[in-house]
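Bench notes, afternoon.
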Amino acid sequence: MSRLRAKAWVLPASVALALLMGLVPLPELLQPVRPYWLALVLAFWVIETPDQVGLGFAFCIGLLADVMFGGILGEQALRLVVMAFILQRFRARLRFFPLSQQALAIGGLLFNDRVIDAAIHLMADEPALPWSYWWAPLLGMALWLPLYALLDALRLGKRGR
């Protein structure tokens, strides 16, 4: 059994934890800057294991998130599929960027996600999100480095010394 096979639990555990992090109640003041944990975790797995995590996986996880979070059915599925598609398209280049440049790219993708979210809310005649929600991609960009390091260490079984 290969070392990567022995760590097969990391993918479902990280997705489950990301879903739970999205359900954790936050104070009203912090709610707008809640990072999109599911998108960050999905981005890691699309970049590192594209043979296991692709558009179908992103769609299914997005539908599950829609049901769990009680939003518009298909909203998060669409947002995650768009993100996964862009990541798959540019994976070969993005994978070899330094993590600081990857964080900038992830920030751009999270900003794009907010644009898609705003468009969906506009088309569904839902109330528009306040301007403070546009700060969340910056927090997600800042969290990319520690999240990437943690998931990579768990995936590969590295131990801190």
